[in-house]
């Protein structure tokens, strides 16, 4: 393993090779190759939608969307949410890779059709569900373009917040000033983009709550509230007043409150519902039923 505290500058070799020990906190799951590591089928429940996920910002987008659809009475959105413990490598099972060859949560299987449809990438899942049920994605061309622009803005921007800023600020084995500066600057620029937009309209895509809000809120709403990487003060998030107003409003929605609990394995136990197989699971959930050992991420 390279001594990252040494002062000698790192000179990249001619050809990169995999040094697993240098992978830091995620060394046991990060690999330079794709595909399954072991044979295991995914479980299948009774509902039309089978979700394989974890309560991270990317996972929460989909459980919020499903809860919003159910709140509107779309029973076709009934779902089983199965927990995928990524830190234990469950995204590399043959079953999971069959639903998402990219081995990342969330992954959805729509079993309401004769040949089940797989959907991966949270943005694609939101769009698929919005089109299937005809809600949260405007049909008028200009409004639809605005909504999809913000949905894809989120998909392109969040890796700089999570994989860039979050990784180097919170997880990297050493604090690298250059990397933290570079990604803090970009995250603050993104927050300003969103803040200016939310000064103009109540929701990201305009007057209506859409999949753009559902995608952006778990990442940027949380950041505005100082909940990502304990970096609220560092990023001076208090200045993004319009994002804070919008984040607080969305947090009040009952479907959002339910959705954010599903597949969640960190934080207060009364906010965790490790798996969801029935609408009643939210009511019958008790701390006794929760298995804290499952929450090791
Ligand atoms: N662009 C993807 C990102 C998904 C993603 O990064 N998922 C993470 C958890 S938030 C994951 O499954 N990581 C496991 C791994 O990298 O092995 C999406 O939005 O669905």
Would you kindly provide a brief summary of this structure?
The protein is of the alpha+beta class. The chain is built from nine helices and four strands; from the N terminus they run βαβαββααααααα. Strand 3 and strand 4 form a beta hairpin.
Written account of the structure:
The chain is of the alpha+beta class and about 300 residues long. It has a domain of about 110 residues: Up-down Bundle (Glutathione S-transferase Yfyf (Class Pi), Chain A, domain 2). The longest helix has about 30 residues. Strand 3 and strand 4 form a beta hairpin. Helix 1 packs across helix 6, helix 4 packs antiparallel against helix 5 and helix 4 runs parallel beside helix 6. It has a four-stranded mixed beta sheet, covered by helices on one side. It contains nine helices and four strands. The chain binds glutathione (GSH).
Spatial sequence of strands, sheet with the most strands: 2-1-3-4
Second CATH tier, the architecture of the domain at 141-253:
Up-down Bundle
**Separation of the first and last Cα atoms:** 24 Å
Average residue-wise pLDDT: 93
Strand share of the residues? 5-15%
Properties at a glance:
single chain, 297 residues, Glutathione S-transferase Yfyf (Class Pi), Chain A, domain 2, 4-stranded mixed β-sheet, 6% strand, binds glutathione
């Amino acid at each position: 393993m390279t001594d990252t505290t040494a002062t000698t500058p790192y000179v990249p070799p001619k050809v990169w090779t995999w040094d697993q020990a240098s992978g830091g906190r995620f060394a046991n799951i990060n690999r330079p190759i794709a595909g399954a590591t072991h044979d295991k089928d995914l479980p299948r429940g009774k509902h039309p939608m089978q979700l394989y996920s974890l309560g991270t910002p990317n996972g929460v987008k989909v459980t919020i969307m499903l809860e919003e659809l159910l709140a509107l009475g779309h029973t076709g959105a009934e779902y089983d949410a199965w927990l995928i413990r990524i830190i234990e490598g469950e995204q590399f099972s043959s079953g999971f890779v069959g639903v998402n060859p990219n081995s990342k949560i969330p992954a959805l299987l729509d079993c309401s059709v004769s040949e089940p449809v797989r959907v991966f990438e949270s943005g694609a899942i939101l769009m698929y569900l919005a089109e299937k049920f005809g809600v949260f994605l405007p049909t008028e061309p200009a409004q639809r373009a605005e909504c999809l622009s913000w949905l894809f803005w989120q998909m392109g921007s969040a890796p700089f917040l999570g994989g860039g800023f979050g990784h180097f600020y919170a997880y990297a084995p050493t604090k690298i000033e250059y990397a933290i500066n570079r990604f803090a600057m970009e995250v603050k620029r993104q927050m300003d983009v969103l803040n200016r937009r939310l000064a103009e309209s109540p929701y990201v895509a305009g007057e209506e709550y859409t999949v753009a809000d559902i995608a952006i809120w778990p990442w940027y709403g949380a950041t505005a509230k100082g909940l990502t990487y304990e970096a609220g003060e560092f990023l001076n998030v208090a200045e993004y007043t319009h994002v804070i107003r919008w984040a607080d409003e969305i947090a009040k929605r009952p479907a959002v409150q339910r959705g954010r609990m599903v597949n969640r394995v960190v934080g207060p136990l009364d906010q965790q519902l490790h798996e969801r197989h029935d609408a009643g699971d939210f009511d019958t959930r008790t701390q006794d039923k929760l298995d804290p050992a499952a929450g090791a991420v």
